[in-house]
Automatic annotation (TrEMBL):
The lineage of its organism: Bacteria, Bacillati, Actinomycetota, Actinomycetes, Kitasatosporales. It comes from the Bacteria. This is Transposase. It comes from Streptomyces sp. Y1. InterPro entries: DNA/RNA_non-sp_Endonuclease_sf (IPR044929).
Length: 68
C-alpha cells in the first residue's frame, strides 16, 4: 500500500486460471453512482495533473486475495 498517496495499491502478482474466474465472479463498478475500484480517483487526478484526459482512466482493476 502507498500510504503517501491515499492508500492505493502498488502492485499485485498472481496466477489465475479460468476455473477460478468462473467460480469467483467479482463485483461490478458503477463510477457514476460511487462504486469505484481502489485507486480510481487517485489515477484520474494524477492523469489530469500530467495533462492527460481523465476519461482515459477506466474502472477495470483485478485485485486478488491469495490464501497461503
Amino acid at each position: 500500500m502507498d500510504v503517501a498517496n491515499g492508500g492505493r495499491a502498488t502492485g499485485v502478482t498472481a496466477c489465475v486460471d479460468s476455473s477460478y474466474l468462473k467460480s469467483h465472479q467479482g463485483t461490478s463498478t458503477d463510477v457514476k453512482n460511487g462504486t469505484k475500484p481502489a485507486g480510481y480517483d487517485w489515477a484520474r487526478n494524477q492523469v489530469a495533473w500530467w495533462g492527460g484526459k481523465v476519461s482515459d482512466v477506466n474502472a477495470c482493476h483485478v485485485l486478488l486475495k491469495l490464501n497461503s
